[in-house]
Design brief:
The complex is a heterodimer of chains A (about 350) and B (about 200). With about 350 residues, chain A is an all-alpha fold. Helices cover about 70% and strands about 0% of the residues of chain A. Chain B has about 200 residues and is an alpha+beta fold. In chain B, the strands form two sheets. In chain B, strands 2-3-5 form a three-stranded antiparallel β-sheet. Chain B has a two-stranded antiparallel ribbon with strand order 1-4. The chains are: A mainly alpha (about 350), B alpha+beta (about 200).
């Protein structure tokens, strides 16, 4: 493990070697993320099934373990239908934009010490930019389908994402103030310097706002208005079928994974454990960091499922008033208090 | 807004309660029955696949009166009869179109001789329409297959009371068929019922 870490983080002067290392990293990250996307769909169905006292998928392989493979094969061979009156170019570009916007967010996520594809200084800002880009995919799909339900879904999505982007950005300002950096690796290091080791404790308000905004940003229940099945058929991707539909589906789960990773890195100390615990039990330091990181991310993804199985969808005006009247003032208050504390303490 | 309500809102107590419930439910065993693997016995008296009752001598009990066909709401029973050599009625064809049947059980109820039955077998889906069109031979085979032995013997006694068993007329009318198995109290009750009905009739008149 350490050898691989040393190899991957080696700052080499050899340009070609750097390119090869980055390509390997990209392949590893994309492979791991896509694998998790496939099995996130499976575990979502399983977890929600059991929460509703059902079993979930059971037929493909033991306990339905091969279900994601069956699903992807099915989607791959399905007919690709494009509506006759659709704006064909935009219709084809939209799923590509949303998939690549969410997939490229994973580029700045440090999975463990030294393992990050692009260790840039404005990591958090880049994540926000990419999640705003993903909203374009949704809006363009709604527009290009030339159909009323996707259009309504696209409109709702643009309004929702703009509102919650603000709250989400503000909720992370507290973390930036405490760590003094936008670089995700440095945010984790800053948390390591404190005895509690997680910004979750001083930034509990910020974490709460981030969680709510995270649900809205990824269009998940209770804020899944852009794809509200009961009102809008399937929302913005109603007219999509086959592989293009699968791209939207994958993008949603990649968004969940990336958002969970951001929550883990900014509030849960990333791949590290709080120094209090590691000082008490030094043996835990022997466990590779990726294990803690992955466990924390799994908890957040489970939270997505858990909330989806519990909370009904918000009404549209409730969604807006929650965003503008509760979350944004709360986030601003959190910034004021945090900066005062950070300045005087 | 009281302090309690504010606290409820801030800590989202209701949502947390709901999440506790869903988490508890996740740990309880599922109620799903894995159908083709674990099959469930149909309840006694379940109205499934049709069968024609076979007599001891091997013939169908059906006399071809056509009451089942007359009462059938979806008109899916076809009975064709002809006159035999010694002026008896012969049932040439007795056919049920399963795809149109609604499984109301009126045919069983209407039959005066208990000659048609609904078995507890319900897994007979097929790819062809022909396989779901029952003729007399198939219906008799159904009886042999699903109502063999004790099940067929007790079937009518438990779930249906054919008129041949239970038919009752009031006293001053010629009795066409004897009542066989009703208890004396039940007879008494029945008589009073008929009297009452008659009284109502005369009142109406």
């Amino acid at each position: 493990m350490n050898m691989i870490e040393a190899f991957l983080s080696a700052g080499s002067d050899n340009f070609l070697l750097n390119v090869v290392v980055i390509l390997i990293k990209i392949a590893v990250v994309v492979g791991a993320v896509m694998f998790h996307v496939a099995y996130a769909t499976y575990f979502e169905r399983k977890v929600i099934g059991h929460m509703q006292i059902r079993l979930g998928p059971m037929r493909v392989g033991p306990h339905g373990i091969l279900q994601p493979i069956a699903d992807s094969v099915k989607l791959f061979f399905k007919e690709d239908i494009i509506p006759a009156n659709a704006d064909k170019t935009v219709f084809k570009i939209a799923p590509i934009i949303i998939l690549f916007a969410s997939l490229s967010s994973a580029a700045v996520v440090p999975f463990f010490e030294g393992f990050v594809i692009a260790d840039i200084n404005v990591g958090l800002l880049y994540i926000f930019a990419m999640s705003s880009m993903a909203a374009y995919g949704v809006v363009m799909a709604g527009w290009a389908s030339n159909s009323k339900y996707p259009f309504l879904g696209g409109l709702r999505s643009s309004a929702q994402v703009i509102s919650y982007e603000v709250a989400m950005g503000l909720s992370l300002v507290g973390v930036m103030l405490l760590s003094g950096s936008l670089n995700l690796t440095e945010i984790v290091h800053a948390q390591q310097q404190r005895w509690y080791g997680m910004f979750l404790f001083p930034q509990i308000v910020g974490y709460f706002i981030f969680l709510v905004a995270m649900f809205a940003e990824t269009n998940r229940t209770p804020f899944d208005l852009p794809e509200a099945e009961s009102e809008l058929v399937a929302g913005y991707f109603t007219e999509y079928s086959g592989m293009r539909f699968a791209l939207y589906y994958a993008a949603e789960y990649i968004g969940m994974i990336v958002m969970s990773s951001i929550a883990v890195i900014c509030f849960w100390g990333g791949w590290t454990l709080p120094p209090v615990i590691t000082n008490a039990v030094p043996a835990l330091l022997a466990v590779p960091g990726i294990v803690w990181f992955v466990l924390k991310v799994y908890f957040h993804i489970f939270l997505f499922y858990w909330v989806r199985a519990t909370v009904p969808r918000y009404r549209y005006d409730q969604l807006m008033s929650l965003g503008w009247k509760v979350l944004i003032p709360l986030a601003l208050a959190n910034i004021v208090v945090t900066s005062l504390v950070a300045y005087f303490v | 807004m009281t302090l309690k309500n504010i606290a409820k809102k801030i800590f989202m107590l209701e949502i947390l309660k709901g999440m506790a419930l869903t988490f508890r439910m996740m740990l309880t065993p599922a109620v799903t029955r894995q159908y083709p693997k674990e099959k469930r016995e149909a309840f006694p008296g379940f109205r499934g696949l049709h069968a024609l009752v076979r007599k001891e001598n091997g013939d169908a009990k059906c006399v071809g009166c056509g009451l089942c066909a007359a009462v059938c709401p979806s008109r899916c029973i076809y009975v064709y009869t002809s006159e035999g050599p010694d002026h008896t009625k012969i049932v040439d064809r007795y056919e049920i179109e399963l795809l149109r049947c609604v499984y109301c059980g009126f045919c069983v109820e209407a039959c005066p001789f208990g000659a048609v039955a609904l078995t507890r077998h319900y897994e007979y889906s097929d790819y062809s329409r022909e396989a779901l069109y029952m003729d007399k031979a198939k219906l008799l085979a159904n009886w042999d297959k699903y109502m063999a032995g004790k099940e067929g013997e007790v079937y009518f006694k438990r779930f249906w009371r054919p008129m041949s068993e239970d038919f009752m007329a009031h006293d001053d009318q010629p009795v066409l068929r004897g009542k066989k198995s009703a208890a004396p109290e039940a007879v008494q009750k029945k008589e009073t019922n008929t009297e009452k009905a008659q009284g109502e009739l005369s009142n109406a008149a």
